Amino acid sequence: MGERELNHRVPEFYCCYLLRSVQKKQSFYIGSTPNPVRRLRQHNGILTNGSAYRTKKTGLRPWEMIFCVYGFTSKIAALQFEHAWQHSYHTHFIDDEERIVKNKTSGRSLHHKLGNVRLLLKNPFFQYMDLLTHVFDEEAFRVWNQNRFKLSSCAEMTVSDFDDVADASSLQVSENPGNSENSDDPSLANLKFVEKLFADILAQHRKNIERQQKFLSHGKLVCGVCHNFFNYMDENDSERRSKPLVAFCPAENCNFVSHLNCLHRVFLDDEQLDRGARTLIPKSGNCPFCEKVVSWPVIVKYSTCIRDCNELGKAAKDL
Ligand SMILES: [Zn+2]
Ligand SMILES: [Zn+2]
């Protein structure tokens, strides 16, 4: 698989993050990564490989990851968000009338950094991805809620368990038992929060993929919408690309499965009935079996992940 294809496929996890220097609270850094744990360790010099040059400057380490946005549908999309966040004074992802940072040198406070995230999340391009946010830091959570610029935003947010700080900071960093890090270091507690989010999301993602693959391995399946049969596991299928994209209901105890195209049509029809207008891409819809509201981008993400997994598996077998 070429780099171009890798950049466009749906990653298990990809986030844009905000770092703040523990020593100088007004110093921030915006970046993006598929592995925030490894990345944070690189920024703090715990891992020496990797190229976290800009955060090497003396007097700024350690860095804490205080906020992140995740759920990007490709590496490219995450890089676009990162670039827009870093260049919020002129990015086209923010409307001029709404812009809160007018030039390069303004907008250095946490209020501005988080305000810009709210503005980017409102952009239809990013909104379509149904991005999620997480706050690892109490002050950042307060600033977010304060919402100084009175901006509306529509992404779901989760928050680390700040009461857990004492427990977290007393733990040693497991992969580096002989290190000289001070266990009172607040950045260690922060690293634990980042590890927890990353582990939780990956576990959830892998559980879903596993469940869906098991389903597909049964062979002959009936589309829950058009009621036609399809067999995802058919090895005689010579055209790899001809396999239909499959939609699953993400609800754990629901067995709905259909052609992705079929569910797409159902969601658009429902939306049209609801609003009287037909769009090209639905935002969400009700599962035809369990009737739960499910996010369309999430269904598409899993659908393409499953196809990629199967292609990778097949490619490996072909070698
Ligand atoms: Zn169908
Ligand atoms: Zn369902």
Number of strands: 11
What's the multimeric state?
A: single chain
Q: Class by helix and strand content?
A: alpha+beta
Percent strand equals: 5-15%
Helix content bin? 40-55%
Total DSSP helices: 10
* Unreliable stretches covering 5 or more consecutive residues: 169-181
Number of domains: 2
Biggest β-sheet strands, sense, barrel: 5 strands, mixed
* First-residue to last-residue Cα separation: 13 Å
> Averaging pLDDT over every residue, what do you get?
85
With strands numbered from the N-terminus, the spatial order across the biggest sheet is: 2-1-3-4-5
Please state the overall shape, judged from the principal axes of the Cα atoms: globular
Order of helices and strands: HEEHEHHHEHEHHEEEEHEEH
Q: Report the bound ligands by name, code or SMILES.
A: zinc ion
Gyration radius from CA atoms, angstroms: 22 Å
Cofactor: a divalent metal cation
Pfam family, one: GIY-YIG
Domain GIY-YIG: 12-95
Protein name: LAME_0C07338g1_1
Topology:
Layout: H1 3-8, E1 15-21, E2 28-33, H2 36-43, E3 63-70, H3 75-86, H4 110-122, H5 124-127, E4 132-135, H6 138-146, E5 156-159, H7 165-170, H8 186-217, E6 220-222, E7 229-231, E8 246-248, E9 257-259, H9 260-275, E10 284-286, E11 293-295, H10 296-318
Parallel strand pairs: 4-5
Antiparallel strand pairs: 1-2, 1-3, 3-4, 6-7, 8-9, 10-11
Can you put this structure into words, describing what you see?
It holds the Pfam family SLX1_C. It comes from Lachancea meyersii CBS 8951. Forms a heterodimer with SLX4. Residues 12-95 form the GIY-YIG domain. The protein has 319 residues and is α+β, with helices and mostly antiparallel strands. The protein folds into 2 domains: 3-170 and 178-206, no CATH class; 218-318, Zinc/RING finger domain, C3HC4 (zinc finger) (Herpes Virus-1). It is 40% helix and 15% strand. The protein has helices spanning 3-8, 36-43, 75-86, 110-122, 124-127, 138-146, 165-170, 186-217, 260-275, 296-318; strands at residues 15-21, 28-33, 63-70, 132-135, 156-159, 220-222, 229-231, 246-248, 257-259, 284-286, 293-295. The strands form 4 sheets. Strands 2-1-3-4-5 form a 5-stranded mixed β-sheet, with helices on both faces. It has a two-stranded antiparallel ribbon with strand order 6-7. A two-stranded antiparallel ribbon has the order 8-9. Strand 10 (284-286) and strand 11 (293-295) form a beta hairpin. Helix 2 packs antiparallel against helix 8. The radius of gyration is 22 Å and the shape is globular. The two termini are 13 Å apart. Residues 223, 225-226, 228, 258-259, 262 line the site of one zinc ion.
